[in-house]
Amino acid sequence: QLQLVESGGGLVQPGGSLRLSCRPSGFSLDGYAIGWFRQAPGKEREGVSCIFSDDDTPEYADSVKGRFTMSKDYVKNTVYLEMNNLKPEDTAIYYCAAPEVQYYNPVCTNPNYYDSWGQGTQVTVSS
Question: Predicted confidence band at 56 (pLDDT cuts at 50, 70, 90)?
Answer without folding.
Answer: confident
